[in-house]
Amino acid sequence: MANQAKLNAAGKDFDFPVLQGSVGPEVIDIRKLYAQTGKFTFDPGFTSTASCESALTYIDGDEGVLLHRGYPIGQLAEHSSFMEVSYLLLNGELPSKDELDTFSYTISRHTMLHEQLATFYRGFRRDAHPMAIMCGVVGALSAFYHDSTDIADPEHRKISSHRLIAKMPTIAAMAYKYAVGQPFLYPDNNLSYTGNFLRMTFGVPAEEYEVIPAVEKAMDRIFILHADHEQNASTSTVRLAGSSGANPFACIAAGIACLWGPAHGGANEAALNMLKEIGTPDRIPHYIERAKDKNDPFRLMGFGHRVYKNYDPRATVMQSTVREVFEALKVTDPLFETALRLEEIALNDPYFVEKKLFPNVDFYSGIILSAIGFPTTMFTVLFALARTVGWVAQWNEMISDPGQKIGRPRQLYTGPTQRDYVPLDKR
Ligand code: CMC
């Protein structure tokens, strides 16, 4: 039968519907599998499992394609702005000029943090990792903004979404200021979303901060490149947390915690640290051998991806942005040469070719961020700042779905079978 997949289990045939999205591979709908067969599927790491329906982002990993609401990432990175991409992700269509102005204005009206939150920062050690601060502060927002946590109310969801997008730059900049011992700067809503963030991070009260347009543009583009990436680990975490009805601030804090890992958002920090450790191009072969050695846990950070089996289209834009930032700031970084050479050697090595391991978004981003002046510990914070719009849009999409259920995976149990309790004196 067309649009049916047949499964033969224990000598019996079962039919399951085959669904077709607007683009991409067909999906076998196994929701009734357990009810019909008494069996589960086993798919640790979700390598073959679609966890939800979504209309936000599409990736074709074999072709290196990334679309947001149908628009290719390269076009958005070149022609759009982070505010416009945020509107697109949240609302499904590109905004008119009026819609964009209204949206940008609304976001700018939510940039301040409750003053009491400054006290909250002071509870952290000065050498705390800014991602640790971010997890804590974002989670704590639900204790400050009680008037936008009713997830059944679309207006509450909208306000909390705007608050999260607007406050992330302030929270991130304050995490940086706290670490370097400088006073927090209040937002300046006359600046763009990204210009305001740069000023809050690098400005000081004693001087006028001048936003360098080329740096503002590069930073804005980096935010666009990180805005959403369909059902990655942190987004799935946000959806899973949200599926229980948890408030949006708590859900985004869960996403931040997941993003921190070096296999995910933490890779940008790890990639630059790796390039620093390699240092000069002559040392690359040694690290390539280590990455290929099964007995060595070392991996090329910023290389490989669960979905992309081709060049990550975000890495292409990142690589050209490195050059733009160097030119604007009149700087260079020998690590860029090391990175280019490492890429060239890896892409010609049979190990990386056969496993289809290509540079991902994190490979070049650290070089740009470092040139702009961010310490490595801030890299993942910037990823979290930008990804917040994707998390919030995905969370909204899930909550608005009438078929939404609590996420509750099953397991293949391998522990002991039932046995009787043995009293302490008999063990
Ligand atoms: N260096 C060396 N070998 C690698 C690498 C790497 N960076 N990535 C994958 N491999 C090998 C791996 O050892 C395995 O080999 P084998 O089949 O012989 O066991 C094979 O390639 C497949 O790897 P996997 O770990 O099974 O693949 P995965 O889809 O589970 O992992 C990944 C994807 C991104 C976690 C992994 O490629 C990795 O650890 N990369 C380095 C970390 C990184 O750059 N992460 C950022 C991802 S992009 C930003 C984001 O989404 O957050």
From TrEMBL:
Family: Belongs to the citrate synthase family.
Pfam family, one: Citrate_synt
This protein's record includes keyword Lipid biosynthesis: no
Alphabetical list of Gene3D superfamilies matching this protein: 2.20.28.60, Citrate Synthase, domain 1, Cytochrome P450-Terp, domain 2
Protein name per Swiss-Prot or TrEMBL: Citrate synthase
Reactions accelerated catalytically: oxaloacetate + acetyl-CoA + H2O = citrate + CoA + H(+)
Organism whose genome encodes this protein: Novosphingobium kalidii
Coiled coil: none
This protein's record includes keyword Membrane: yes
